Amino acid sequence: MVKDSAIYVAGELLSKAVPFVLLPYLTRQLGVAGFGALAFYTAVSAFLLIFISLSQNAAITRYYYVYGKHGLGNVVLAGALLSVGLWAVVACGLVVAGKLLGSQLSLNTQLLGYSTLLALGQSLVQSQLAVRQCQKRAWDYLALQLLLATSNVGLTVMFFATMTAGHVADGADDQVAARLLAIVLAQAITACLAWLLMCMRLGIRLSWRKRRLWLVMRYIVALGLPLVLHALSYTLKGQLDRVWVYQRFSAAELGVYAAGVQLAGAVSVVIMAVNSAAVPYLYEAFKARRVSIARLHRWGLMSLLLAPVAAGVVWLLPRSLFGWLLGAAFADSQYYVACFTAAFMLLVPYLLWVNVLFYHGKNRQIAAASVCSTLVYVAVLAYTSTLALKYVPLATLASNAVLLPLLYHLTKRIEPA
Q1: Which spans are transmembrane here (predicted)?
Q2: How far apart are the first and last CA of the chain?
């Protein structure tokens, strides 16, 4: 029998694999400037998701494990209505800001609108996935991820096929809009089908009583607001560089930079997937005292060698390989792939040690370390962006590196004498 954890990991890998599968296609279709613009507007949607979603998936999961299935539909419905309301507020604000400041900030109001829809769609899909995961419906979870991935790819290819060769070569805004619209429609298809199946197959009832919905919205906000800082810290480290680069450098430069980040991101996807599968076994080993913190310290210190080795391997690859994979204009992305591969490899010791803190319930220490890392990231990013684009990856490298001595010290204090 296939374990549920393996199915969830497969679903996560499937959802994360779509950007990598489409990467060579998108770089050729959009060109460096168009791909840079796409990276910017998807980064904007990642920030908007924090405020539109308010970590509803966490609220749904907690409600189910505390109160059970009864009333779960109210949480999902109230969360969806709350997301739509927050989306309307954010969208109106961005439209006004785009018209007032669009020329100074090189913003496209239409693409900003698609970014808000992208964040809303992601929030609705995440909520539905949370319903399946907390009820341990692993195959339903995988099916939704598969539907989202296939419709995403299919709609993107279909939309681009209708574009003229001239627009493809120019990487015009309508190409970026087509890609964003494809993602939004894929999310809409997945969310609508998931809602239908939730009511028909899972037997979850929805109540439209205003008082109950209002109470549940307050419950979601009470749980979600404290998590905004944590989510913002995480998103800043993953997306702020693209927003910053887009404002300080050309879209073409951002395109090469973003392609390198995305290609190197395959490393972090694999590491995070392995971590998701390994955490239950690691916790069991902690409980049975089969693994000591001292041993994890040794493993973490040894894994530090992976960063320079992996970066060196990428750097020794022929430059023409990246031009062949992504397109001739993206050959310079090799430098960024090497830099971010080194930075992402530092996730190995980080995850080994942070799981110790999670196991012992040291959430405050984890949050404090994350905030410290984010402050380092923002400071280094602000400084390096005034020098040259090639120094910007140092922000991610420095922020990941500064976490390690902090976590080592915090976990050392847990080890019994």
Answers
A1: 7-26, 32-54, 75-96, 111-131, 138-160, 180-204, 216-236, 256-283, 304-329, 335-359, 366-385, 391-410
A2: 42
Answer yes or no: is pLDDT of 190 > 90. Answer: yes
Inter-CA distances, 376 with 171, 241, 379, Å: 35, 13, 5
Enter the pTM of the model. 0.79
Q: What DSSP assignment string belongs to 19-81?
A: HHHHHHHHHHHHHHHHHHHHHHHHHHHHHHHHHHHSSHHHHHHHHHHHH-STTHHHHHHHHHH
User: What's the rounded Cα separation, in Å, for the pair 253 and 243?
Assistant: 12
pLDDT number for residue 394: 94
Q: Are 78 and 216 in contact (CB under 8 A)?
A: yes
User: Rounded CA gap, 169 and 166, in Å?
Assistant: 5
State the Cα–Cα distance between residues 88 and 386, nearest whole angstrom: 36
List Cα–Cα distances, 237 to 80, 232, 244, 338, 365, in angstroms: 27, 9, 12, 18, 18
Structure tokens at 302: 């040894």
pLDDT at 4: 62
Using the structure block, give the residue that is written with the tokens 């300080």: 248
Q: Using DSSP, how many helices (H) and how many strands (E) does the chain show?
A: 16, 0
- Which pLDDT band holds residue 1 (cuts at 50, 70, 90)? very low
Rounded to 5°, the CA angle 379-270-130 comes to: 85
Burial per residue of 47-67, b for 16 or more beta-carbon CB atoms within 10 angstroms, e otherwise:
bbbbbbbbbbbbbbbebbeee
Phi first, then psi: what are they for 143, rounded to 5°? -65, -40
Q: How is residue 117 written in tokens?
A: 């829809």
Q: State which amino acid sits at residue 17.
A: A
Integer Cα distance of 246 and 255 in angstroms = 9
Tell me how far the alpha carbon of residue 95 is from its chain's centroid: 24
- Biggest CA–CA distance in the chain, Å, is 70
pLDDT digits (tens, 9 = 90+) for 220-251: 888 788 778 767 877 888 788 888 888 788 88
Q: Are 144 and 130 in contact (CB under 8 A)?
A: no
Q: How many CB atoms lie within 10 A of CB 289?
A: 7
Using alpha carbons only, what angle is made at residue 113 by residues 110 and 115, rounded to the nearest 5 degrees?
115
